[in-house]
Specification:
CATH superfamily: endopeptidase domain like (from Nostoc punctiforme)
Distance between the termini: 10 Å
CATH topology: endopeptidase fold (from Nostoc punctiforme)
Structural class: alpha+beta
Shape: globular
Number of helices: 5
CATH architecture: Alpha-Beta Complex
Largest sheet: 6 strands, antiparallel
Number of domains: 1
Length: 144
């Protein structure tokens, strides 16, 4: 990721700091989609935003549309889970909860997501890799 894109990511995360979670408007998946749109100058969000209104309809939509790992690969990310141990700004981590994924964006050594009860949150890679006490596997992606 070049310096200009890092500035875009820093600005984007700063914009989100007072954002509340809202299914189908701003949630962890759409946070990632909006970031990809800013990074690439695309408008993938138009196909996803406002297509679901709660967790149940989000799961149904994702099953019919495209699961998060496949979507990331479609838009130019590659799975780096096995080959990469150093994580870079802009990497996307997906925590697999079985029926759905929680998406996180790496920036300055932290992972950021928009969570249901808290809005924008951050955590360390170590905390997420330890699964916050769960066994949910995490897959890591990087823009090619």
């Amino acid at each position: 990721m070049n310096l200009a894109d890092r500035h875009k990511l820093a600005s984007y995360i700063a914009e989100l700091r007072h954002t509340e979670h809202n299914w189908g408007v701003m949630d962890c998946q759409l946070m990632t989609v909006y970031w990809v749109d800013k990074l690439l100058g695309t408008n993938y969000a138009k196909d996803i935003a406002h297509k679901y209104k709660d967790k149940k309809s989000a799961v149904v939509f994702a099953k019919r549309y495209l699961q998060a790992p496949e979507w990331l690969e479609k838009v130019g990310f590659e799975d780096i889970t096995e080959q990469e141990t150093i994580y870079k700004d802009g990497d996307v981590w997906l925590q697999n909860h079985g029926m759905y994924y929680t998406a996180w964006i790496v920036f300055k050594g932290l992972l950021y997501s928009v969570c249901v009860d808290t809005g924008l949150v951050n955590t360390t890679p170590e905390e997420l890799s330890n699964g916050f006490g769960t066994d949910d596997p995490t897959t890591k992606f990087r823009m090619i």
